[in-house]
Each structure stands twice: as C-alpha cells, then as structure tokens.
Specification:
With 216 residues, this protein is mainly alpha-helical. It has 2 domains: 3-123, no CATH class; 131-210, Nonspecific Lipid-transfer Protein, Chain A (2-Layer Sandwich), CATH 3.30.1050. The protein is 56% helix and 5% strand. It has 11 helices and 3 strands. The protein has helices spanning 3-18, 23-27, 37-49, 52-62, 65-79, 82-92, 105-122, 131-141, 151-155, 180-187, 202-210, and strands spanning 159-162, 168-169, 175-178. Strand 1 (159-162) and strand 2 form a beta hairpin.
C-alpha cells in the first residue's frame, strides 16, 4: 500500500471513530495545548484545504507559522460544527486542495495520527489505530528531521522499543519502552504521555520534551 493509500484508509477509519464523540467531548481540551478537540479537527481540515495565499497572509498577520496555524484552526472551528468538519475532511481526503496537494502523504499520516491521539488520550480513550499505521509513523518521524514535529531530535541517542509491535530504533543503554501510540505521542512533545513510558532513557526523553526550546 502506498503512503497516499495508507493515509486515505487511516483518514476513513479516523472519521468513523470521530463520529462517535459527543458535543461535550469535542469541546474538551486536547493534548495539543493550543486547541480544543473541536479545533484539532478543524486543523486537520485546514491541512487539506487551506490556500497557500491564505496561509501566508495569516503568517504575516499573526507573526509566524505556529501562530498562523493555531489561528486558522480556531477561526475555522468557530464557524463549523464537528459534523460539518467531518464532512469536509471526508471530501478533501480524496481531493485535497491548496497546501494539501503538496504536503507529503507520509508526513500527513504522522500529523493526523498524532492529533487523533491528542483527542483520544485527552478523553481517556484508548486508541485503536492499526499497528502498521503506527509503525509507519514511527519509522518516518525518527528517520529524518521534520520542522513541524520534534520526534527526530527527541529520539537521538535513545533505544526505542514498542512493547506492542515488532518495532525498535537505535541502540545503546538508553532504553525507552512503551506502546507504539504512546511513543508517537511522547516523541511529538506530548508531555502528558511521559508517565506511560519506562526505561533508563525515559528521563532523557522527558527532559527533551519539557525543554522550552522544543515547546514541550
């Protein structure tokens, strides 16, 4: 299965999960500190649909990439309910426009999975993301630097082991072990997931995630 096919299949699965959430759950805070769960969903839609000109103008007005990204999601969520956003996501996952046409599928999978975890873990719900999807995300995120996700930097020098998958990365005695979804979330700077990890390298990872330089 190609990265694009994997992305589409994962988006369809995510939508089926998201359709079961209540209005109260959508309004709750996510693990992504900028947004509620509703705004996280709006961010996923923005990633597929925002025009380049619109994004550049928001960067100029808001003072950078991250503030523009946060503002766009909040603005989009303010005018659309979760049901409308899910309909947009379903439409755009087959026909991305704007930025979505150019962003690599393998990176979008990581973004979408990380934000699904932001929603579910914040609600104390255990994710049921297929292991092959989680492994694909981990392989991508620890293999090369990504300006939007600090997983490559966070993983350097550590031996990472997924307890529920045939996946490991790195070597040495700085072991960090956890379930694959927990590793994806923690490597993406979600400090709330750090207590779920174990091993002598866990304090090193925690220090990196909590460092002001990484925004953790």
């Amino acid at each position: 299965m190609s990265a694009r096919e994997l992305l589409r299949a994962n988006d369809a699965r995510f939508i089926s999960v998201a359709e079961t959430l209540t209005a109260e759950q959508w309004s709750a805070p996510s693990l992504c500190s900028e947004w509620t769960n509703h705004e996280v969903l709006a961010h996923l839609v923005i990633g597929y649909s925002c025009g380049i000109g619109t994004f550049v103008s928001h960067m100029y007005r808001c003072g950078g990439f991250d503030p523009a990204n946060a503002a766009l999601a909040r603005e989009h969520a303010a005018t659309r309910g979760p049901g409308e956003l899910l309909a947009e996501l379903r439409n755009h996952m087959d026909r991305p426009i704007g930025l979505g046409r150019y962003f690599p599928a393998r990176l979008l999978i990581g973004d979408h999975v990380t934000h699904e975890l932001d929603i579910l873990y914040a609600l104390d719900l255990e994710p049921r993301i297929p292991i092959e999807v989680l492994v694909a995300v981990l392989n991508t995120q620890v293999s090369f630097p990504n300006p939007f996700v600090p997983a490559y930097r966070n993983s350097r020098g550590l031996r990472l082991v997924a307890a529920d998958a045939d996946w490991c990365h790195g070597d040495g005695d700085q072991l960090v072990e956890g379930r694959a979804a927990e590793l994806v979330s923690a490597l993406g700077n979600r400090a709330a997931m750090l207590p779920r990890l174990r091993g002598p390298g866990a304090p090193t990872l925690a220090e990196r995630v909590l460092s002001p330089r990484t925004g953790g």
